[in-house]
Amino acid sequence: MRLLHLSDLHLCSSTDAIIYGINPFDNLQKAIGNIRAFKDTIDFCVITGDISNDGSKESYELADTALSLLPFPVYVTNGNHDDYHNLIDTKHRKLTFCPWVTRQGINFLFLNSVANAEDGTNRSKGLLSDKELERVRRVKDQNNPTIILMHHPVLTTGSWMDRRILINRDDFLSVVASIPQVVAVLSGHNHRSFKNRIGTCLFSTSPSISTSYSDQLRPYEEAFSPGFDLLTIEADITYNTINL
Ligand SMILES: [Fe+2]
Ligand SMILES: [Fe+2]
């Protein structure tokens, strides 16, 4: 199976909006141009959140229309920049929001790692609720290999980015360590590609389609290497990062 992993499109309500000096809609168009070269080899696509920068319905409609050019399904989960209700309520042709899906004998479990502040706004750091952690525990009752998808990364990188990742990552990692069916955990949010394995489980953070950061630069300083990941899932999982 060939999986396309996109993240952090950060689209705005207008196609000419600029964020941090880049036009995210232009970057998405460029990415789609690149993806079309591989389109016949891809089975489906996942997007690990921050599809929108401003949470507007218009931004999701732009994403839905642009990604409709791709000939395979596109499944999404939400990030801290997304408006959960605008993401799931809008009648999309292409973007599919669902708790889990099975493709070619592999379960894909989509988690909501976005935590709310006391005023109801989304926090930047991630947190898995007890309900979401319980969904992970129930993976042990399934026989299929499982890939977990959520916006916030789990593993530290020893850089400023560690301030932004999943707060209760130790709880998550101890659950995953007891479930050999979990073969990969895919995330976004850091706008920087990062891969590591614990045992045979791949932890992969894809680059962003929009702005791009580096752990070598100052926080949020643009690194100009947006891109996406292609994963090949066979007995092992291999990955290839494509820069725009
Ligand atoms: Fe983001
Ligand atoms: Fe994010």
Describe this structure in words.
This protein has helices at 24-36, 57-67, 84-89, 130-137, 169-177; strands at residues 2-6, 44-48, 74-77, 95-97, 100-103, 106-110, 114-116, 122-126, 146-149, 182-187, 194-198, 201-205, 227-233, 237-243. It is of the alpha/beta class. It has a single domain, classed as Metallo-dependent phosphatases (Purple Acid Phosphatase, chain A, domain 2). Strands 4-3-2-1-13-14 form a six-stranded mixed β-sheet. The chain has a six-stranded mixed β-sheet with strand order 5-6-9-10-12-11, with no helix packed on it. α2 (57-67) links the parallel β2 and β3 (74-77). It starts with a strand and ends with a strand. The model has no long low-confidence stretch (mean pLDDT 95). One fe (ii) ion is lined by residues 50, 79-81, 151, 189.
Summary, kept brief:
The chain has helices at 24-36, 57-67, 84-89, 130-137, 169-177; strands spanning 2-6, 44-48, 74-77, 95-97, 100-103, 106-110, 114-116, 122-126, 146-149, 182-187, 194-198, 201-205, 227-233, 237-243.
Topology:
Layout: E1 2-6, H1 24-36, E2 44-48, H2 57-67, E3 74-77, H3 84-89, E4 95-97, E5 100-103, E6 106-110, E7 114-116, E8 122-126, H4 130-137, E9 146-149, H5 169-177, E10 182-187, E11 194-198, E12 201-205, E13 227-233, E14 237-243
Parallel strand pairs: 1-2, 2-3, 3-4, 6-9, 9-10, 10-12
Antiparallel strand pairs: 1-13, 5-6, 7-8, 11-12, 13-14
Helix pairs in contact: 1-2
Bound molecules: fe (ii) ion (2 copies).
